[in-house]
Amino acid sequence: MITRPDAGDAFPDTPLEKPGGGTVKASDFRGSKLVVFFYPKDDTPGCTTENKDFTALMPDFTAAGTALLGVSKDPPAKHEKFAAKHDLLAPLASDAPEAGLAEALGIWVEKNMYGRKYMGMERTTYLVDADGQIAQVWRKVKVKGHAAQVLEAAQAL
């Protein structure tokens, strides 16, 4: 059984690839709150809506002292196209194809669609406090209204 970090645990400091080069990790945000939202795939309906919702609320997250970071297994070049196509403001990062942050969090899971089993990202969001501890986790996220829920929690933290 994979251990899944929860509220009160340290958020893993696994590096992620940024579009345009370089890496980003949770410790880069110490001193401010951080929302890391994991989504399955760029340019799919639910993932596009989720990213647009976080983009729309970005000024409110910034006012609440909270940075945003969207993460999927898509390569950095695909993130660049996705962000440009939909005018996304929340930074995106790419998790390693294998043994990355999603695996460390236990959210790279076996899925089943139409009887076909495959590995995929479980839509999950983490609110990380200024000290790098997980303050709140939303698992198996339903997109509608989710970004607003996360904003409320960030404002209360």
TrEMBL record:
Mind telling me what this protein is named? thioredoxin-dependent peroxiredoxin
User: Into which family does the record put it?
Assistant: Belongs to the peroxiredoxin family. BCP/PrxQ subfamily.
Arranged from A to Z, the UniProt key words for this protein are: Antioxidant, Disulfide bond, Oxidoreductase, Peroxidase, Redox-active center
Q: What does this protein do?
A: Thiol-specific peroxidase that catalyzes the reduction of hydrogen peroxide and organic hydroperoxides to water and alcohols, respectively. Plays a role in cell protection against oxidative stress by detoxifying peroxides and as sensor of hydrogen peroxide-mediated signaling events.
Region (Disordered) residue ranges read 1-24
**What is the taxonomic lineage of the source species?**
Bacteria, Pseudomonadati, Pseudomonadota, Alphaproteobacteria, Sphingomonadales
Gene name in the database record: bcp_1
Q: Where is the active site?
A: C47 (cysteine sulfenic acid (-soh) intermediate)
InterPro entries, A to Z: AhpC/TSA, Peroxiredoxin_AhpC-typ, Peroxiredoxin_BCP/PrxQ, Thioredoxin-like_sf, Thioredoxin_domain
GO annotations of cellular component type? cytoplasm
- Provide the catalytic activity annotation: a hydroperoxide + [thioredoxin]-dithiol = an alcohol + [thioredoxin]-disulfide + H2O
The keyword Oxidoreductase is annotated on this UniProt entry: yes
Which Gene3D superfamilies is this protein grouped with?
Glutaredoxin
A Pfam family (short name) is AhpC-TSA
